[in-house]
Amino acid sequence: MRRLVRFLSLVVVLAALGWLGLWWYAESRLALAVDQAAARLHAAGWTVSHGAVTRGTSPFVADVRVADLRLTPPVADGPAPTLEIPAVDLVVHPAAPLTLDLGFATVWRMALEGGPSFTLRFGSIAADDRFDLADLLHHAPDPLRAGAFHATDLRVDSENTNFTLVSIAAIDASGTRNPDAGPDSMAATLHESLRGLALSPLFVTLGNLPFGGKLTALSVDLALSGPAAALPARLTLPPGARWLAPGAAANLPALWRQLGPALHRWAQGGGHGTYDFGLTVGPLDAHGTGSFGFDAGAQPKGRLHLVADGLGAALGALSTHYPSLTGDISALTTAAAPYFTRGPKGGQRLAVDFVLAHGAVSANGTKLTTVPPLVWPASPQAVPGKAAPKG
C-alpha cells in the first residue's frame, strides 16, 4: 500500500511538473508571437511600439498582456494616424489549446499627426484566432486557420470636446482558410457585418443627409474554392501607396500586375466562389446572392440574383435631398422599370438575374452589353536558378 501511495504521489508530481512545463512553453510562445507580429508590421512599413509585456501567474491559463500598444501605418502623403490601445490580452485556455482569445481595453485613442484626435469607446470588444496544430509544432509562417472579431456599441468621439461623431451598434467579422484546398475544396471564407451606424445629428443637418444619417445593416459573405496554393498568400502594397487616398486609382494597375499572375493560376486551376450581400438603409432593403468562376479560357463568368424592396422610395428621398441628381435618378428609374414586380407587401420590388457569360452581360435573359476579354498580366521574370510560376 505504501508503495502504491509513493507511486501515485510520483505520478502526481510528474504530471504537475509536465503541466507547468506546458504552461511555461505556451506563455513563452505567446510572448514570442508578440515580437513576431511587431516584426512583420515593421517589415511592412508600420511603426509599432508597446510598453511592458507581462506574463500571467495562474497555471490554469496561458496569459500574456501587452501594455500601451501604438500602431502607425505607412503613409506617403498627409497626416499619419496613430492608434493607441492601452492593453491587449492574449489568452489560451486548456480546454481549447488551439484557440487564442484576444481581449482589448474598451477605450482606444486615435490621433492624426499634427491634427485632431479621437476616442473610440466600445461596449464590448473581443477576437479569437484558431490555429493548426501541425503548423504550430513545425513553426510554419502562417498557422492561422480561422478568426473572428466582434464589437458592440462603438462610439467615436472628438477627444477635445467629447462630441460624438459616429456610433455603431455592432461589428462582426470572421473568416477561415484552408491552405491545402484543391480544385473542389473550400479555400477561404469571409463574413463581415455592420449594424446600426448613425452619424451625428449635426452632420445630418449640415450635410442635408437622407435617411437621418443612419444605416440599419450591411453584410458581405464570400467563399472561395479552388487551389489555395495559387492564391496570393498576402497582399503587399507598394511602398508609400495609399489606396484610399485621392488619386489612388493610379496604383490599381500596379496592384493588378502584382496579384494578376497568381489569380490567373487560380482561375486556370478551377478557382470559383460564391458571395452574398445585404443592405438596409432607410426604406431600402436589398439583398444579392451570386457565384463566379472562369471558363476554359480563364475568362470570367458569373451570376447575380438581386432583390430590392423600397428602391423607389429610397430614390425619391435622394431626389429630395439632392435636387441636382433628379435627372440621373429619373434615368435610373426608367432603366430599372422593366425589372420591377409587386413585392410581398404590395410595394414595388426590383428583381433582376444578371448573367456574365461568353463576354456578354444579360439581365433576366436580355443582353445588356458586351465585355472585352480580360487580359491577364504576364508573370514576373524568373529569378536565375528558380523556376517561374505558371500563369
TrEMBL record:
<feature type="transmembrane region" description="Helical">
    <location>
        <begin position="7"/>
        <end position="26"/>
    </location>
</feature>
<dbReference type="InterPro" id="IPR018666">
    <property type="entry name" value="DUF2125"/>
</dbReference>
<keyword id="KW-0472">Membrane</keyword>
<keyword id="KW-1133">Transmembrane helix</keyword>
<dbReference type="Pfam" id="PF09898">
    <property type="entry name" value="DUF2125"/>
</dbReference>
<keyword id="KW-0812">Transmembrane</keyword>
<protein>
    <recommendedName>
        <fullName>DUF2125 domain-containing protein</fullName>
    </recommendedName>
</protein>
